[in-house]
């Protein structure tokens, strides 16, 4: 990282921070990683389960956009951004991206990231209604945009964890924010050897994405590479959500679907052998789109950074999958 590209602003646009000390720990850890860290004035605000009332959080998003730091890192997800989508000034968000801001987060931040794509605020080569790359765009390392990636409290501010979180996650984050990350790789199931696909990368939390369907805040991306994760959702609920995406025409319109981690669900005595694999097998039987598993992304300590709306290439050799941009 260079001095001009390492300003990082920690902010809270969604759920309230449970433990305020985690923000301080995250700030310390991020400083140790070489960032110039600032914490937004309302980062630890609280109203019910939210990081401040709706007006407070909307003002936070606009204040961060106007400041246009190199990195706008959310403290946590939870819930809250959906309440703000109809009121966000997307032109202010777009201006921050044009000035080089990289907005980073996952989970509830999926709503902000996908809505930004839908409203053309995701960056000059990230317009969600276009199915082609903009020729001659300069992808230098000051380029702003939206990244599905770690968050301050859960990935940099953990108590009792050496370094505040997972080393691989933090290394990838630093590479991505420094403009050096150009690909991620993972091991997938057998059966996809030789698969190649090019398309716009988009996605995030499955439940949040579902909540955007049929609204003006859902990007309409055809020929894309869709990535998905979720937490606290039983496989039958994941299957139901994926089937809705399929029945809405979303899955068949993609070049590939990459499934990350689906964690923290409880088995039911009614399952009788039904599990996540059963759900995925059923989806594969109804859509022509390849569905790959194994993407290291989700509510887990190890997570990669993924550039929302960027044109990517997916290449599978044997069981090794690579996403390049």
Give a structural overview.
This protein is α/β, with parallel strands linked by helices and 325 residues long. 28% of the residues lie in helices and 21% in strands. It has two domains: 3-177, Rossmann fold, CATH 3.40.50.10740; 183-324, LD-carboxypeptidase A C-terminal domain-like (Glucose Oxidase, domain 1). Residues 126-141 have low confidence and may be disordered. The chain has nine helices and 13 strands. Helix 2 packs parallel to helix 3 (90-98) and helix 8 packs parallel to helix 9. The protein has a seven-stranded mixed beta sheet. A six-stranded mixed beta sheet has the order 2-1-3-4-5-11, sandwiched between helices.
Question: Strands, helices and their partners?
Answer:
Layout lengths: L6 E5 L9 H12 L3 E4 L14 H14 L3 E4 L15 H9 L3 E4 L3 H10 L26 E4 L3 H5 L10 H11 L5 E5 L8 E10 H7 L12 E7 L3 H13 L8 E8 L12 H11 L4 E3 L12 E2 L3 E7 L2 E5 L1
Parallel strand pairs: 1-2, 1-3, 3-4, 4-5, 7-8, 8-9, 9-10
Antiparallel strand pairs: 5-11, 6-13, 7-12, 12-13
Helix pairs in contact: 2-3, 8-9
């Amino acid at each position: 990282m260079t001095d001009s590209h390492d300003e990082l602003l920690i902010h809270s646009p969604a759920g309230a921070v449970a433990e305020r000390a985690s923000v301080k720990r995250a700030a310390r850890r991020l400083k140790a990683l070489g960032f110039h860290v600032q914490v937004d004035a309302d980062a630890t605000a609280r109203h019910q389960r939210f990081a401040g009332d709706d007006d407070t959080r909307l003002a936070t998003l606009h204040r961060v956009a106007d400041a246009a730091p190199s990195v706008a890192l959310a403290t946590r997800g939870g819930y809250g951004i959906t309440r703000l989508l109809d009121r966000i000034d997307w032109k202010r968000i777009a201006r921050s991206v044009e000035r080089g801001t990289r907005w980073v987060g996952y989970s509830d931040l999926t709503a902000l990231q996908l809505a930004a794509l839908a409203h053309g605020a995701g960056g000059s080569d990230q317009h969600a209604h276009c199915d082609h790359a903009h020729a001659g765009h300069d992808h230098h390392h000051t380029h702003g945009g939206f990244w599905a990636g770690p968050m301050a409290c859960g990935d940099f501010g953990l108590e009792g964890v050496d370094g505040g979180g997972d080393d691989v996650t933090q290394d990838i984050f630093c590479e991505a924010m420094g403009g050096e990350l150009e690909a991620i790789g993972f091991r997938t199931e057998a059966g996809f050897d030789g698969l190649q696909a090019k398309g716009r990368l988009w996605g995030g939390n499955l439940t949040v994405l579902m909540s955007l369907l049929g609204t003006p805040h859902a990007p309409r991306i055809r020929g894309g590479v869709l990535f998905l994760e979720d937490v606290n959702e039983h496989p039958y609920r994941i299957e139901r959500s994926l089937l809705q995406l399929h029945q809405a025409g979303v899955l068949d319109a993609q070049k590939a679907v990459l499934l990350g981690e689906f964690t923290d669900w409880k088995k039911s005595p009614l399952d009788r052998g039904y599990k996540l694999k059963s759900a995925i097998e059923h989806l594969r039987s109804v859509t022509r789109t390849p569905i790959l598993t194994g993407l290291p992304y989700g509510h887990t300590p190890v997570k990669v950074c993924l550039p929302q709306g960027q044109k990517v290439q997916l290449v599978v050799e044997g069981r090794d999958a690579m996403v390049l941009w």
